[in-house]
Amino acid sequence: MIVELLALSAPVFVIVALGLAWARLGLPFDSDTIGAVVLRVGTPCLIFSTLTGAQIRVSEVGEMALAAAGAIAVATLIGAAVLRVLDMPLHTYLLTAMHGNSGNMGLPLAAMAFGVEGLALAIAYFLVVSISQNTLGLVISAGRFDPGALLRQPVIHASAVTILVLVLEWPVPGWIARSTELLAGLVIPAMLLLLGVSLARLKVADLKVAVGMSALRFAAGAGGALAIIAALGLQGPQAGVVWIMATMSAAVINMIFAERFDRAPERIAGVIVVSTALTLAGLPGIVWFALLFGGAA
Predict the structure, then answer these.
(1) Confidence label for 264 from pLDDT (cuts 50, 70 and 90)
(2) Which residue has better confidence, 294 or 102?
(3) Fold designation for 2-293
(4) Under 8 Å CB-to-CB from 107, ≥6 apart: which residues?
(5) Cβ(120)–Cβ(56) under 8 Å?
(6) What is the Cα–Cα distance from 129 to 58, expressed in whole angstroms?
(7) Structural domain spans, the chain
(8) 124-144 in b/e burial notation, b at 16+ Cβ within 10 A?
């Protein structure tokens, strides 16, 4: 079992470490361009290719979306309660408790642990996280909501088209299936490389706060996952994927919000770095629990 756990988590370590080393060596890496390609081309293709190609029912996608919304809601309540007790500003730190890095880390890990089915389920979860980040995230950080920001997200357009194809059971032409599959293949390694490069460029400003908020991120995510798995009676890959996606480190997008709205970006950077490092160190344990919930351990 130990060898299996290491085999599942090692690729994440290797690719993130490669991105980290690349940036530390000062080699050229255009994060903006690569990130834009991943967001605007690769991720929409990943959503379409995986969900239309996997043997997954629309009802399963709906169940996973519901589970994601529930896990985020529980994590938000836990995070808000703890931050209130600690008298720390919600608009600065609540997002780190609410949303894990379900894209850069969650999708690759779910795919490695549960295969194509796990990736399809993880994508459904990721879509809800993305919507939450661009709605609740903006409201909490900026104190306002811009519906246009959500409607401009390519993943929303890709999701709408994909659901339409699934519901109406339209056959996907072979050239579209092959093209989107090829473009989808760049997403997971690119996301992990981007994560490694981001870690190399971020600095820890306040270690005590970073460690504390990292602990809150995991506690809130794990609490949300366990509550939803029990409440919805999830089993198999569904339960395992919910656990993986909910317990990931603080999302890198939190840094973007912190910089845009001046919410202590140097401290949020520290939370992202420390929580990612701790999550990477704990990956074998996280995967073991996921396999246990999924009935594979």
Answers:
(1) confident
(2) 102
(3) Na+/H+ antiporter like fold (1.20.1530)
(4) 46, 119, 122, 123, 126, 187, 188, 191
(5) yes
(6) 18
(7) 2-293
(8) bbbbbbbbbbbebbbebbeee
